Amino acid sequence: MLRLLDTATGVAVPPAERAGARVGLYVCGATVYGPPHIGHGRFALVYDVLRRYLARSGYDVRHVSNITDVDDKVIDRAAAEGRDWREVAEEAEEQWWAAMDAMGVLRPHEVPHATDYVEEMVSLVAELVRLGVAYETSDGVYLACDAVEGYGTLAHQSLDSLRSGARAVVGEEKRSPLDFAVWKKAKPGEPTWPSPFGPGRPGWHTECVVMSLSLLGEGFELHGGGLDLVFPHHENERAQAVALGRPFARHWVHNGLVVVGGEKMSKSLGNYTELKTLLDAYDPRAYRLLVLRSYYRSPLEVGPSTLGDAAAALQRVDELARRLEAVRPRQDTVPRGWDAPGGQSRPAAVFPAAQSLRGRFVEAMDDDLGTPRALAEVLGAVREANRLLDAGEATGALALGDVALELLGVLGIEPAGVEAPPATIVELAGRRESARRAGDYDAADRLRDELAAQGWKVDDLPDGPRLHR
Ligand SMILES: [Zn+2]
Question: If you placed Cys at 349, which of 68, 183, 344, 458 could pair as Cys (CB 3.0 to 4.6 Å)?
Fold first, then answer.
């Protein structure tokens, strides 16, 4: 069973109490004011693989990731360029999705835009004021952090130590330097929305708490984002929910950052490489492979030599896929690409190394999304299958190679030039299988129709469901 290290407790826990349960996953998404850099690419890939693996593990995943389309950075860029802020946000969002599509990142099930939820944000701010945990100043409304029980849970620091580390800014009316804006009163030329505190716009921390609770409900399972968001962003999201007495995320997961010479890659430091530059220069799958070769919480240096290694590994994958198709018996119409969790593909069943590969892969992934070990196992099997083909052992090569390619598909890596069920189809089939096992045949039938509408059939064979055109 998959266990993920929870940032709040430091303990590895299952994402939900029972297999097959719903897992609501909220991931802080892009602030759209410019083209994404490779650090953004890493977080998108990490949560894409987490989402795919949750689905593969039988969970009913609901992946929500927001777009912050109003923010100081969006407004500043629009002002600097003499453009409308909406135009800046729309252009940057297009660039975002183009890069995500190039990397094969599945679109989240929901992509809330902050500007669509402002009314709810105003209500939340009003409620915080009514409860006496937020107060108004001349420039906004602030949450009083010392009124929140357990403030510092994510930072693993006490309120006192956080307070002594925070710097007071001369002229600010905040009661404590830790207090943060839940509503920002309008400055000249800024986009505004009406509120009981005058026209203005919501604070960033307020946006995410409203959108996550609104779309996933109270006590949703997983909240994710980059490690740089743990404090203050996630601490402050949590603080608002706690102040309102609303159960928030049950578990927290964070990805490590892309670093340059040990320093965080960021737009403000100017040490970034645009994602598009990397994706234009290399096979986009190479970046996914490189990201998965590191533990998701570790810092990651990205350079030409590691990208080159990844591209070479992918060539071996593509070569294997081509060679397997060439030796595959014609009557074998079973497509590669999907087996039920714990299922056995027929050729694999007669070849123990292929069976144990699946087990070793699952064991590595279950251990806090251990993609480095899982990938090493699979790429080792790719080498071995190519070796078996060299030795003329087609049956063994097919058995081992098909499982290796299937498992790469779980990580979102498909061989070039060979059709396999796309991940969205695999996910639909996984949901159907979960529904079927839970005895919800209406839902299972609906999902079968959905698959059929997209041109895929599913056969329930004794050893598990099988997808084919
Ligand atoms: Zn957020």
Answer: 344
